[in-house]
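Sample intake — ATS13 metalloproteinase
Collected from: Sinosuthora webbiana
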Amino acid sequence: CQPVPKPESRVEVCDLNPCPPRWKVTPAGPCSSSCGLGLAVQLVTCVQILHGQEVLQEEHLCPVAEKPLTSVPCVVRTCSYEWSFSEWSECSTSCGNGIQTRQDFCLSSLTHKPVNPLFCRRFPKAIVVRGCSAGPCPEQEGTLSPGAELQPVTPATHLTAAAAATEHRHKDLDVPLEQTKPGGGEESTAKRSFLRVCGNLFLNATGIINMTGVESRDCTVAIGRPLREEISVTILESSLNCTAGEVLLFSGRMMWRTGCRKLPLSLINSRTNTLIVKQRVVLPGNGVILQYSSRTATKKYYQDCDQQLFGPQGEIVNPVQLPDERQGVVCRTFITVAPRQRVSIRALKTDLGPEGNHTHFNYILVRDVSTMKTVVFRGKQQFLWQSTGSQAEIEFHE
């Protein structure tokens, strides 16, 4: 180009319209917990570039649905936890049989401070209610305890015939057990499966769960397999918007994990035979597609007398301890139903031994897994118990 006259260089403004306001996130501060899961606070502001300068704007000018979280999960390092208890209260009665209670706390072994009880959920907990006696009441002297004619129940734990037949009919279908209905054809069944994936329980050995395009903000599914198995989940696709606060939560009896970024092709292992998956979305159409499978558990997380029930209904009979088993073993029954359902347990007949001037009795402990609250039943007490979530555990203490 040397023979051609070179024009003068100049700069022209190409656009005078400012860029729209956007969210600005400062690096997160220190983690609130010295070990385990905690929260870190990050400053989120609405800013706009005007004349080359960053100007602070009111928050409503930025997209509300895209606002990042002000608190984000953080993990410094793994730490262990243990149950601790307060002193026993005084006996609830001034005479006759009563109860004593004590408060339980989940403590961090590093800080020796109370933390959320969920951190201790995998550790066995001693009783928080026990019987006590303040001596016979004057009007009760010489009387016998009622209910002595009750007979002990037979040793068995099983589903009712109706529940077992329902489970057999659906064991080969790749749709949740609660979704299938007679008639409608394969096309309508698949359509119902897609539209009603949220709140369902999947019992097949393998399957694919599509949680994209669901209408609800929170979508929860459960996967269940027999004891002695564990579940592995691979995330095939994810369209979650992490900056908008969308997240995926996995929870089981021995694991708890959340995530949003780098989800595709990641692998999650339940370590037990049940897994709850909860998805929270903000923007319509977002979600994940999961593929799950089951295998024999690598470590034994159960006892030989433990049982697993998936419903929709069943009968539980206290298992009898065999002579060659070690003393003090606690037999448990795990109940898992669809996340949209709740559990009711009704005692038809109980006889846990005579009640007398002792502080320890045989007893039944029922635990609500979602809140980790426990209730103790003893003696010849009949009861009706209802859960707040879709999982319950029963322990038979002898």
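Post-analysis note: The longest helix spans residues 185-195.
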